[in-house]
Amino acid sequence: MSTPGEMGTEAWPLWEVFVRANRGLSHVHVGSLHAPDPDMAVRNARDLYTRRNEGVSIWVVPAEAITTSDPDAKGAFFESPAGKNYRHAVYYTKSEGVKHL
Amino acid sequence: MFPRGDQRLEDDRAPTGVGTANTQESTMTSPADLSVVEREPSPEEAQFDDLIAADSRIEPRDWMPDAYRKTLIRQISQHAHSEIIGMQPESNWITRAPSLKRKAILMAKVQDEAGHGLYLYSAAQTLGITRDEMMDQLIEGRARYSSIFNYPTPTWADMGAIGWLVDGAAICNQVPLCRASYGPYGRAMVRICKEESFHQRQGFEILLELMQGSDAQKRMAQDAVDRWYWPALQMFGPPDDQSPNSAQSMAWNIKRFSNDELRQRFVGMLVPQAEVMGVTLPDPNLRWNEERQAYDMSEIDWTEFEEVLAGRGPANAERIRRRREAHEEGAWVREAAAEYARKQAERRLAASGAVA
């Protein structure tokens, strides 16, 4: 079985693991692991990433299913917000000293 | 803009074509060819140098010099192997731990070591080496691991001494590695350090309890400390003037303090702890030097270190043999799990086909 996006020589596919620390919080990426199928991936994730009550819920996602932005286009791709500091509250200084603004 | 397939998670995956695409770029790191230092660095090199200079982090899909990549693969895989081999001297005592509580603690600790090995293997994989390659290197005796795990654990007090001295030295080494310039390595170390502090405390507690016990128990604790003290100090590696790779690792922000600095810091922490416990550290020349504001200590016997590192330690062959056995005897489990997954996937496919 090959791991898409990898060298094809890994025995088991790669899974990215996301853990929700508590109700009310998002699942956060904590790391990755290898497992043959989704059930084993969840069990391995429990043993590997939640040995000390780190979570109340786990997601595992096949690494191959994740689409990322192109790392070489870093600058260009994220250029749009640059120079647009009027999107932030601190840009507006004339209201300084006025309460509840 | 959103490439699929070959692109991996920014966070954790290695670039494709590792070790081939980058070879030409990395000549800058070859000390033999001084002329290349003069040439303009490529944009990738410049970006790498800037990130290091800014004490920022390098991530898997960033360009990096081949030598940086190789150094990290070596260091992280050795570190992973150490965690995995390090399970053995302690698992030796799981069946004979003196109480149910101690047994549960020891099992939790050994399970942690397995977890630490896995975090680190994952980090190494982001640099373009496979888990299988690393495992082969280990069981074929081609990879190194910390020489400390080649010492036997004949008494229960060894569990205490390993926790207090070996895990203590490891923490001292590892805390600065949380700030290592390679992102996945630093993140793995943060997780490991959080868990490691329980290991050291439980070791201290085992020795402390023995030191408050019978004369025979006190002797057993002192004997374990006598046997583990020097090997633990050797864990920091050779003295600074004999550690050729240290300077480069420090320039790359992988290593933050020199071997001797960390060793000195560790001894400084041990002395008051030994006093609390009532054990004697087995170095007659160990004393505070007011002028240097550091501890004077005896010369370390590096010939022993070299011997153990070269594979001639008390338990080298045994450790590799057991690791190989576990790997080979577990092969059917891995194959069965892969086959089960294949069949389940087939069934899911057939079922979805039937619905459509």
Distance between the first and last residues' Cα of chain A: 59 Å
The residue-averaged pLDDT of chain B reads: 88
State the order of secondary-structure elements of chain A, H for helix, E for strand. Answer: EEHEH
Please estimate the helix content of chain A. 10-25%
Name the structural class of chain A: alpha+beta
For the largest beta-sheet of chain A, the strand count, sense and barrel status come to: 3 strands, antiparallel
Continuous helix count of chain B? 14
Number of helical regions of chain A: 2
Helix vs. strand class of chain B: mainly alpha
Q: Please, what is the average pLDDT of chain A?
A: 85
CA-based shape of chain A? elongated
Pfam families (chain B): PaaA_PaaC (PF05138)
Region (Disordered) (chain B): 1-44
Biased composition (Polar residues) (chain B): 19-32
Protein name (chain B): 1,2-phenylacetyl-CoA epoxidase subunit A
